[in-house]
Amino acid sequence: MTERVFLQLGTRPVPYPEDVRARLDRDADTIIARYSLPEAPDPQMARSALLPLLHLVQAEDGFVSPTGIEFCADRLGLTGAEVTAVSTFYSMYRREPTGDYLVGVCTNTLCAVMGGDAIFEALQDHLDSGDDRLTLTRVECNAACDYAPVVMVNWEFFDDQTPESARALVDSLRIGEEVVPTRGASLCTFKETQRILAGFPDERPGAAHAGGRVGEPTLAGLHIAQDAGMTAPTVSRPTDSGAAPLDSEEATAAATTKDKPAPAPTESVPPEKGE
User: Fold this and answer.
1) Where in the sequence of the chain do the CATH 3.40.30.10 domains occur?
2) Which CATH superfamily is domain 101-199 in?
3) DSSP H helical ranges for the chain
4) In angstroms, how far is CA 74 from the centroid of its own chain?
5) Disulfide engineering: 13 pairs with which of 67, 126, 137, 264, CB 3.0-4.6 Å?
6) CB 214 within 8 Å of CB 220
């Protein structure tokens, strides 16, 4: 008699407690409503709410947990595989528990050559691996190259960093001091940041008015152009969705063939011009 063998390939996520699920459902209702019309609900359109919903579950769990994946799938009529595919594609979604402060060091080309690699190595040596309030990671370019090397904490910018300033920054975070980024309001925790990214109000004092600084490195090219009397070149009105104008021979050929059906698979395709 053949003995049956059962393989357990994974454990089913533990559902959220009822009170947590009810709170998340209310927030999810608010998010999903932005992506569908009340008079004509469209499940396909509602699926556009997946990205903010992933931020919502990160605000609850500190990362995209298996339970969070199941929650998003259930709310949007998706499979767990579909939600996982999206959450693992974007680097802003964490796959493992994250501390109160996600310290990201840009080590893309410009920041790296300006000292980003040295900053990352310095923080690796400086941070206690047992301190679960701080999570160190590398981040992709965040378009602040004018101020390289850049460190980000919970996606807020700290410009023109050095190994020394970066160590002082994380020391302030560890002892609970108020830390204000180069641009923006005082830092909040990773989970609080995720709730803001999910589309809920940023209630930090001054948050709505704290991000307007434009520094000289950003404006340098503009000032050079103004001093040299440079202006943007004029362009003619584009034709054919921006395609280059056709010469007379090409225009004639286009006019005679634009309404002609495409050749059947058995027909030969005309040679390219010049062949």
Assistant:
1) 101-199
2) Glutaredoxin (3.40.30.10)
3) 18-33, 43-46, 50-61, 66-76, 80-89, 109-111, 117-126, 163-174, 190-197, 216-227, 248-257
4) 23
5) 67
6) no
What is the architecture, at CATH level 2, of domain 19-89?
A: Orthogonal Bundle (1.10)
pLDDT tens for each residue of the chain, 275 residues long = 566 765 555 567 899 999 999 999 999 999 999 987 666 667 677 789 999 999 999 999 999 999 999 999 999 999 999 999 999 999 899 999 999 999 999 999 999 999 999 999 999 999 977 788 999 999 988 888 989 999 999 999 999 999 999 999 999 999 999 999 998 889 999 999 999 999 999 988 877 655 556 677 778 888 899 999 998 888 776 555 555 555 666 656 655 655 666 555 554 545 555 55
Do 75 and 53 meet the contact criterion of CB atoms below 8 Å apart? Answer: yes
Residues of the chain with CATH 1.10.10: 19-89
Question: Please, which residues have CB within 8 angstroms of residue 237's CB and are 6 or more apart in sequence?
Answer: none
**228 DSSP 8-state letter:** T
Extract the tokens encoding 60: 């609850």
Angle, CA of 174, 180 and 182, to the nearest 5°: 125
Residue 7 in tokens: 């393989």
Residue holding tokens 């605000």? 59
